[in-house]
Amino acid sequence: MNESYRMGEQSIIAYLQRLANGVSTAELDVAALPAELRAVGEQLQKTHAILQQERQLLERNAYIDPLTNLGNRNGFDRHVEQLWRKGDPFTCAYIDIDHLKHCNDRFGHAEGNRYILSICRTLSETMEHDEMLFRIGGDEFVLISPSANEIELEQRLEQVRTRLIEASSGGKAPMIGSFSFGCSRVDPLAGDTRRQMTMDADRKMYRYKLMHRVQQPKDDDAPQRPIVDQLPCNDRVFQAISMSSETRYPFILNLDTGNRNGRLTPCAILTCPPSTLLTHSTCGSPAFIPKTATTYAPSSTW
Q: Rounded to whole angstroms, how far apart are CA atoms 107 and 174?
């Protein structure tokens, strides 16, 4: 074995070791290899290029939503972890598309996908350069803003929602488009936690959905215009019911009709006697509606 061949082998071994150690930018100078090793070097480079492409595809599938090309829940989790490590305060907005199930059921999933994409496009057009939008569920999105405070982001989203409703009303679209949102300001260095961030923004979003519902026309002949109901919802009652669930809010069974239903857990919080409850079954689960829930919200608790 001549010296040139031995040096070539060492170059190939060093190249493979760098790749094994995670140095994806490692390079092999094929031209410097002896003639009998150049074919081996070229094949190694081609194999490495294929593996890099496969890795990028796997990472994309792991962190990118295929429909919207936005970050998915994994991408959101990774981004929030990075923000937490930096320690800088930021504002998050939890956004929920209104009436997506209605759109899918009435017009089909293809139209439902177009509805989702129209919301994404509308939100993206108003975002600042340092903001990021993630799709973390079928109709759930999160917008992260390092620069805007809570009030600024709420005002902007309200303007976006108003324009969306106006643009899709009066027969301009198959249905009236809208979304609900809740914003929360987070400061990791002040002791804020991800759990607090999620619960605060999520609770605000569901309260907004209750208070600013856009009702779709019920029949084909009805004029298509937004019907925005200001539903009566006492703050203390809403907080009591919403805090009965540590995650989502199973007591909200039918936002489309405006019925604010609940499971029996909030009864203890509201101390509503059985005579004040209208029991019925909605969506297959027992539920109740307090007749005069505000009356029975115990002031001593607050």
A: 8
Q: What whole-number distance in Å separates Cα of residue 50 and Cα of residue 172?
A: 47
Q: For 148, what's the count of Cα atoms within 13 Å in the CB-facing half-sphere?
A: 23
What distance in Å separates the CA atoms of residue 284 and residue 39, rounded to the nearest whole number? 68
Q: Mind listing the pLDDT tens digit for each residue in 150-174?
A: 999 999 999 999 999 998 887 777 8
**Full-model pTM:** 0.62
Give me 194's structure tokens.
């991800």
- The edge-to-edge listing of strands for the beta sheet with 140-145 is 132-135, 140-145, 90-97, 179-186
CA–CA distance, 193 with 202 (Å, rounded to integer): 14
pLDDT surpasses 70 at 45: yes
Q: What local confidence, expressed as pLDDT, does residue 217 receive?
A: 64
Confidence check: pLDDT of 100 > 50: yes
Percent of the chain's residues with pLDDT above 70: 71
Pairing of strands 213-215, 227-229: antiparallel
